[in-house]
Amino acid sequence: MRSPRFARIVLPILVALWVPTLGACSLFDRKGDSGEATPPPKVTPPAAPTTAVYTVNRASDGNPNLFIQKVTVTPQSTTVEMSYANKTTGAVDIMLAPTHDPEVMFLESQGKRIHLKSAEGISFMPNRTKVAQGETKVFTAVFEPLPPGATSFDLYEGEQGKMAKIGSGSLWVFRNVQLK
């Protein structure tokens, strides 16, 4: 049998510590006087990153030997896979302006300029990538992400590309590339 001191001192302390925790228990979590339990809060899982891949197969407006093959859009970047088919009688050099150059390639979509981040399979000036006669060179250009909901873009080789006439041949220009 416990002492009267336990009942007078320790028991009230234990009750004081234990009773408030009952209010935090979901068993006692009630709404008003209805007696219905409050449902647990809904947890929305984070949205999974989405990747969209578009097969484009579109020739350049400025150079019939240059094609966009595929476009991959993620929340982090837009990757444009391109090819250059050398149909001339000799070797051709291709290259991109470096990312800090005023004539660097860029995309435009929904009134926003999307900057070039990197490229693979093609040299940045002053270096050059040689494409032999009859050879097709495939390379990728990686840009910042397109705006959400974008369904098309323009690709320009620098500001001069925006002014280029269709079929001019010297600048790499793709207007109204549709993502379907």
Description:
This protein has 180 residues and is of the alpha+beta class. It has 2 domains: 1-41, no CATH class; 52-178, Immunoglobulin-like (Sandwich), CATH 2.60.40. It has 2 helices and 10 strands. The protein has helices spanning 4-24, 158-163; strands at 52-59, 66-73, 78-85, 92-94, 105-109, 112-120, 129-131, 136-143, 152-157, 173-178. The chain has an 8-stranded antiparallel sheet with strand order 1-2-3-8-6-5-9-10. A two-stranded antiparallel ribbon has the order 4-7. A hairpin with a 4-residue loop joins strand 2 and strand 3 (78-85). The longest helix is centred in the N-terminal third of the chain and has 21 residues, at 4-24. The termini are far apart. The relative contact order is 0.17. The model is unreliable at 26-30 (pLDDT under 50).
Tags for this model:
180 residues; alpha+beta; Immunoglobulin-like; 8-stranded antiparallel sheet
Summarize the structure.
The chain has 180 residues and is an alpha+beta fold. The protein has helices at residues 4-24, 158-163, and strands spanning 52-59, 66-73, 78-85, 92-94, 105-109, 112-120, 129-131, 136-143, 152-157, 173-178. It has two domains: 1-41, no CATH class; 52-178, Immunoglobulin-like (Sandwich), CATH 2.60.40.
